[in-house]
Amino acid sequence: MLSIAIAIAFAMMTLAQLLNLYRLFKGPSLPDRILALDTMYINSIALFVLLGIFFDTTTYFEAALIVAVMGFISTVATSKYLMRGDIVE
Amino acid sequence: MLIVEIIVSFFLLLGAFFALAGSIGLYRLKDFFTRLHGPTKATTLGVGSMAVASAIYFSFHLEGISLHEVLITFFLFVTAPISAHFLAKAARHQRIHEDKGHPDSD
């Protein structure tokens, strides 16, 4: 039963990543692309968590945590660049 | 052990549903300031729910309880409003809504 749920969740997360990729390529403005990239970071955390349950190992936890921290920092840095034209003033 | 599988499956499917709903919102909504709501609320809730599912699964499959997945949930719930705030400020600075008859664009 858990294997069926993991397969369905993998399919839904892959579809979500494809929708994010469409917005990343199409997005009319720059904040749209940053938002799509941030959503791809968060969905990749979900994919790492799913891989950890699927392979029954806790190795992917650190990767998920690092992706979470780096995604937040990159989103804040690129938004700051759009606002000010500079990241650290 | 079956009840644990049912609970973990429920949280996994709930999380995948909310993450997919956020991405569909990012795909379909028509304005940037409406598109901002899908990923920052629904996707955060979905990925947090999947991390909770992972915490429940590893609490019953390894020895001892496993709470470090809750760290990811906590971090996402803290940082999602901050990044949404920065993105909204960047979008206002880019003036991307001033030609669409938006209420703010007189």
Any overview of this molecule?
The complex is a heterodimer of chains A (89) and B (106). The model of chain A has no long low-confidence stretch (mean pLDDT 90). Chain A is flat. In chain A, α2 runs antiparallel to α3. Helices cover 85% and strands 0% of the residues of chain A. Chain B is mainly α and 106 residues long. Chain B contains four helices and no strands. In chain B, α1 runs antiparallel to α3 and α3 packs antiparallel against α4. At the A-B interface, α1, α2 and α3 of A face α1, α3 and α4 of B.
Any key phrases for this structure?
heterodimer; A: 89 residues; mainly alpha; Helix Hairpins; 3 helices; 85% helix; flat; B: 106 residues; 4 helices; 77% helix; 0% strand; antiport (chain A); transmembrane helix (chain A)
Give the SSE layout:
The complex is a heterodimer of chains A (89) and B (106).
Chain A: H1 2-26, H2 30-55, H3 60-84
Chain B: H1 2-28, H2 32-35, H3 37-61, H4 69-94
